[in-house]
Amino acid sequence: MKDIQRTICLLLLGFHSYLSYSLPFSIKPAPGTVLPTTIAQGNQTFAYYTVVNNTAKMRVGNFVKYLPTNVTQIIDDNYISNLCGAKFTLQAHNSIADNCILKLLITGAINSNDRDPTKHLFVCFPGGMTCAGTNYPLNVSVLSEPQSFVAAGTYSNNITQTDSMAISVSTNGNTWQMVNIPLPNEYSSAEINGMFCTDNLCEGVGFYTDALDNDYPAVLRSVDNGKTWTQKSIPLPSGCTQGTLNAVYCSGAYCNAVGGCADGATYAMTSVSTNFGITWSTQLLFASPMLLLFGVTCIDNSCLAVGVNENNYGIILKSSDNGQTWHKNLQVDNTQFNSVSCTQKVCIAVGVDTNSYTIIYYVSRDLQNWIPYTYTGGSLLPYAQLTSINCTSNYCVAVGETSNVASFSDNVPISMRFDLSGTAATPIVFSGTPSNDCSLNGIRCTNSICVGVGSCSSNPYIVTSTNAGQYSWSQQITNLPAGITTGAFNAVG
User: Fold this and answer.
1) Dihedral angle at the C-alpha atoms of 174, 257, 107, 118, nearest 10 degrees?
2) Is 10 helix (H, G, I), strand (E, B) or coil?
3) Contact, 369 vs 384, CB < 8 A?
4) Which end of the chain has fewer CB atoms within 10 angstroms, the N or the C?
């Protein structure tokens, strides 16, 4: 009987593109998603399919019979309301509930040309004799290093007093290619503050400025590793007339962006997308006191956002529902939190003590309780701050700057590495910088490569480590486009 079932499935696999009208299911990538084609060694990613009942009657007890090697079905996700479970019911074709979302965890290579039908996706009616495959098979290769880095920020023309979005893409962290991002006609300037990339998807956030000098939150989206982009302004929450987004993080179908909006006062603003960054909803948080958010990260269904309020308190917010609602998790006097990142074992929020202008970081192992640390001395100049942190599954690296003056001019870049317990190594103070005023604003690490971005004497500045941020960094200033006088990178994904 097993051989008969395999034969049926094999025939379906070979001929489903011609007989799709008669198949029991239609299985296509979920709207707004892109099937991953690469995965970094040791990492994991997700694929999402929409499974549609093609028949004229309700079907009960459907199930996934076969999956490719290195693929597991996720049957529990509280935030996908129509998730395909271990057994699932679909209403008749063209009914409201004739479909469900199939969520698949990918942990390694997948060969779409494998001739064994049990190594392909098949969804079946009860009994497993009537099945359907997909015209969109998974084909994933494993990379020893990431497929791309995307650096983002702003280019400025000091003569026309206008700013434009800056994006450069690299496949190795060393060689960079600029990407042209046209400015929408209704705006005069724009800037990207935050960038997040996973697999082929990248989300960037920032703001547009109109002719009256009003700012509006901007979102950019790429599904080809940063080569091409769509962009739009998203609505402001009620009570705000201007706004900007400073950071973004995506986990599964959910993307969270944070920043601030204003109408005479500044309020914390969050934006959340439940469909991979296609559409966004915004909300204003905590109307008093004024609060601005600079960083966000998520782990499983929990998210953390960090910033500072008008009373000079560093703030950590927590969400337990993928950014739908937020509450205050920590409030610390004389502190500004600039960034936060997590592994499965530890979360670290970094920033500056606004009284002494020295490095401060907080470590949590339960997303609830935080242990404070400060760092001074070593090779650091009298003043120092950490501006960004990024964690892999094995380590975390933060970047920032140190200076002889509390206003942080004439800066020297620094990096600081943390292990999985949150213990920090001695900061690396960069030497041989291209000029006397260099800062780092963003960091991304994967496997052994870390890329930091910022500015050096008003030019875009990139540093790269091939040893997980442990020892030395290479440095470069990227070229400015024609007609541009200054530039800076604010983030890297």
Assistant:
1) -130
2) helix
3) no
4) N
The amino acid at residue 97 is A
Amino acid, single-letter form, for residue 68: P
SS3 content of the chain, % helix, strand, coil (to 5): 5, 50, 45
Structure tokens belonging to residue 449: 């490569």
Measuring CA to CA, how many Å separate 117 from each of 60, 80, 121, 173? 24, 29, 8, 39
* Domain 145-492 belongs in CATH node 2.120.10.30: yes
Q: Looking at the domain 2-142, which fold is it? A: Immunoglobulin-like (2.60.40)
Question: From CA 213, how far away is CA 231, in angstroms rounded?
Answer: 20
CB 242 within 8 A of CB 259: no
Q: List the chain domain ranges.
A: 2-142, 145-492
Token pair listed for 249:
């993080």
Closest to 395 measured CA to CA, from 455, 331, 439, 448: 448
Strand order across the 71-74 sheet: 25-29, 45-53, 99-106, 71-74
Query: Over the stretch 299-330, which tens digit does the pLDDT of each residue have?
Result: 988 999 999 998 999 999 999 999 999 999 99
Percent of the chain with pLDDT over 90: 63
Q: Give the residue with greater pLDDT, 7 vs 102.
A: 102
Instruction: Give the total residue count for the chain.
Output: 493
| pLDDT tens column, 76-85 | 887 688 999 9
Residue 120 token pair: 């392909």
